[in-house]
Every structure is written in C-alpha cells, then in structure tokens.
Amino acid sequence: MSKTSAGGTTVAKYTPDDLDRQIIAHLRADGRASLSKLSDALGVARGTVQNRLDRLLETGTLLGFTVRVREDYDVNTVHAVMMIEVVGKSTTQVIRRLRGMPEIYTLHTTNGNWDLVANIRAANLSEFDRILREVRMVDGVANSETSLLLSSV
Amino acid sequence: MSKTSAGGTTVAKYTPDDLDRQIIAHLRADGRASLSKLSDALGVARGTVQNRLDRLLETGTLLGFTVRVREDYDVNTVHAVMMIEVVGKSTTQVIRRLRGMPEIYTLHTTNGNWDLVANIRAANLSEFDRILREVRMVDGVANSETSLLLSSV
DNA sequence: AGTTCCACTGATCAAATCGCCCAATACGAT
DNA sequence: ATCGTATTGGGCGATTTGATCAGTGGAACT
Known about the structure:
homodimer, alpha+beta, DNA-binding, 33% strand, 4-stranded antiparallel sheet, Alpha-Beta Plaits, 2 domains, globular
C-alpha cells in the first residue's frame, strides 16, 4: 500500500483503478448524476458504484461536489484570504467544522506561522463579518488574520 | 431587462437575488445536497428551492455540477500564498513587476497588515525558492510572508 | 380601493433513488 | 485448493424527486 506522511499522521493514499476513473469522469460531467444512472452507464451493479464512490470520498481522492457558476457571477461578492492558527492537536476537528461553512471554498494546510489558509467568498460585507466571527468561535482556533481581496491586479 | 448576446442569439441574463445566492453558496460546498436539505437549511419550501434551481440552470447562471478531485496532476507543483508589504507609494510599480512573473497566477490588493496577496505556483521547490528571492528583490517590496499550501483539506 | 400578476407555501401523490442489508458468485493472491 | 476481497443481483424501508393543486401575501397597475 502506498503511503505518505503528512502532519505526523500516516495517510493511506488510494490509487483509483479504471472503474474509479470512469466514475470520476462521469461525475465531472454531471456531479449530481444518480448512482443508478452511473451504474447503468458503466454497466456495473449499483452497489459497486456506491462502494467505489464511498471509498473515493473516504480516501480523499474525491474532495466533494460543487456547482459550476457563470463567471460574471462573482462581481458583487466579497473575497478574502484568512490565515488560521490552531491550538494543539485539534486541526482535524477545526478542518471538519470549517469544511461545513459554504463560504469557505478552498482550505489548505500550511507551514510557518499559520496552520490553515482559507479562501472566503461572501455575498456582502455583513455576511462576511458573520463568517469571520463564526470561524473565530470555532473550538481550537487560536488566532487568525484576514486579508480582504480588494481588486485583482 | 439586462441582455447579453452570445453566439449570435440574444440571451436574457438573469440576476440572482439573495435566496438564489444562498442556494448557490450551499451548492458550492455540497453540489449533491438534496433539495430537501437545502430547503431545510434555508427555511423555505422545497418547491421554491426546486423552482429557483431550475431557473438558475435554465438561465445559465449555473452551468452544471461537478466533482472536486484531488489535484494529482499538481502533485509535483508547489503552491503558496504570499503576503507582501509595499513601501510608500510604489504599489503600482511593484504590481507591474510582479505581473510579469508567470508563476504568480493571482494577484490582489488588500487591506490590513499587507498590501498585496499573491498566489504562486512553481514546478518544484528550487524554482519556488527562485521566485521568492525574485519577489523580495523587487524594488518597493518591504516585507513578505509566504505560506506553503501543503494539502487541500 | 379593487384587480391582476407572480412567487411562495404546504399538501398531496407516484415514481425514482438512496442506504443498507444479504447470500451467491467471480477472481486474484498465497 | 483455499482464503480474502470485490462484485453481483436481489430485497427492504426511508428518503428524495418531480409534478401537481389550492391558498396566501405582496407588488404593480387601473
């Protein structure tokens, strides 16, 4: 089994096979395709698709599902990058909590002074303010620094 | 009515309201969320979410759904976010210099402690190191702080 | 005021799908 | 040959979907 160590804990890296890749390919085209449609299209049992998909998500090969939005949609939204410091060993819990916030659209671990880097997108400033409070209230978040992205240059 | 022409045919552009944006925000975090879950989360009737979503797709505000895949093709590239402080009034010159570096793929002005936020993507660590030096050598760059993005979580 | 129009609600309903279970089967590795 | 794992086909209840419908409320217009 191929393994890679990150952050002290050992994470098993799953290597997708051909069926996995076909499932991913179909989901890339339609992320809301039902398991039944996928199993029909691929000619395998529904339970198989279900198991594969579960595993792909569990192993982190698939990070989740999202929606493709028209480009000019974002003009009136507030963008920011937030650096987060986490106390002790609570990184995993913090990540789980932050992942649940729809306004956080990318979340990376990092090195140096901070532990996490989050990209935030909010509908307006008051919404944005609410998100900041929410993040700072998360158990395990020790410190944070937020930079509003003003204009793309 | 705001209109835009694309491909020869005239398309009415739909302007999402607050509820639409909330739906989109939730779908961005979980593109497979059921209509029931969405209606629960937003406190509106299921039929409403269904109608809104239909319209968002029909008008092209939403292009479709997809899956977020672990970036394995990027497995050998180095990603980082760099916060930059600029001395005095030299922001414009600094921006012009940084814009010339292909490894900087997004560049935003910001508020607070820093003046610029740059996203950097390099082929490898030594390449990455070269970029960092280059940025710090730019006339007008007073200080910087770089966070390597380790893994997407 | 009265009327029209439209979106939202809450409710039904059948059909599809999901999540979970099971026993039987196929296949690869030891 | 045997063990372990994955797949299959099936069944089950619970959930979700797509499609209705009548009722409500608000905004715009006469």
